[in-house]
UniProtKB/TrEMBL annotation:
Protein name: GTP cyclohydrolase 1 type 2 homolog
Organism: Paenibacillus terricola
Family indicated by similarity: Belongs to the GTP cyclohydrolase I type 2/NIF3 family.
One Pfam family of this chain: DUF34_NIF3
Record has Metal-binding as a keyword: yes
Gene3D superfamilies: NIF3 (NGG1p interacting factor 3)-like
Length: 253
């Protein structure tokens, strides 16, 4: 697969979402190479450690959800230097992946056994919740155990009602806004799941009696990236796909 074939596949998969977020730098390329890509490495985040790991595994193209953001001062410059040194191309896709049918929210909901009821969307500058429904209700503890197993990390559990869980509201990653918890309440969700928590996330969930499960930003979003790279591989079956390992450094306490 070459760079033009990759770009065409991305356009096919995301369509209008690329147009919607074109001006917001929500996706892009670093150190584009004209080489043939034989191995794709994927991760949620781009860091120097991820690039060095990719180099060891002879990755040609790194695909991530997050870029090395400018506010993590100096890291983007270091990453770009390493990409150039190791002759690797990097592609990141942020909000379009959050709102894609195969994206971050839907991928995790499906792994938890839920059928998709409502697609997460970008509304008034914020993420609306995705909603999934389980075929059979479970206890909060059972759902938390399933999620912990899927993410392979400890999750935070806030029991704020005695409801059994069937209807799940979710925003992966930084879905810690009280607006999103309020939306989950208005849509009669039994639990709200996200990838970051603040004081106000916990306070408001308790106040409105909304059960809460919080995993890490990194590992609530990795499955959307995985879905993307396997969709690329469907068209280019000779590609090797490698998951680049990230640390569970956001584990809940």
């Amino acid at each position: 697969m070459n760079i033009q074939q990759f770009k065409t596949r991305i356009e096919e998969l995301f369509g209008q979402l690329l147009v919607d977020f074109h001006e917001n730098e929500e996706y892009g390329y670093n150190n584009v190479s004209s080489t043939e890509y034989r191995t794709i490495g994927y991760a949620t985040n781009l860091t120097p450690e991820i690039i060095l790991q990719a180099a060891e595994q002879k990755v040609d193209l790194i695909v991530t959800h997050h870029d090395a953001w400018d506010f993590v001062y100096g890291m983007k410059e270091r990453c770009n230097a390493l990409l150039e040194e190791h002759h690797m191309t990097h592609f990141f896709i942020h909000l379009p992946l959050d709102y894609a049918e195969f994206g971050t929210c839907n991928s995790l909901l499906q792994l938890l056994g839920a059928n998709i009821v409502q697609q997460s969307q970008h509304i008034n500058g914020d993420s609306s919740i995705g909603i999934g429904e389980l075929k059979h209700p479970v206890t909060l503890e059972e759902l938390a155990a399933t999620m912990s197993g899927v993410l392979e990390e400890k999750v935070f559990v806030g029991r704020n009602s005695d409801k059994v869980i069937r209807r799940i509201g979710m925003v992966t990653g930084a879905g810690n806004s009280t607006n999103q918890l309020k939306e989950a309440m208005e849509y009669n969700c039994d639990v709200y799941i996200t990838g970051e928590k603040t004081l106000y996330t916990v306070q408001y969930a308790k106040f409105i009696h909304m059960n809460l499960i919080v995993g890490s930003h990194t590992f609530t979003e990795i499955f959307g990236v995985r879905s993307l790279v396997f969709k690329i591989q469907e068209q280019f079956p000779d590609l090797e796909i490698v998951q680049l390992n990230e640390e569970h450094n956001e584990v809940m306490t």
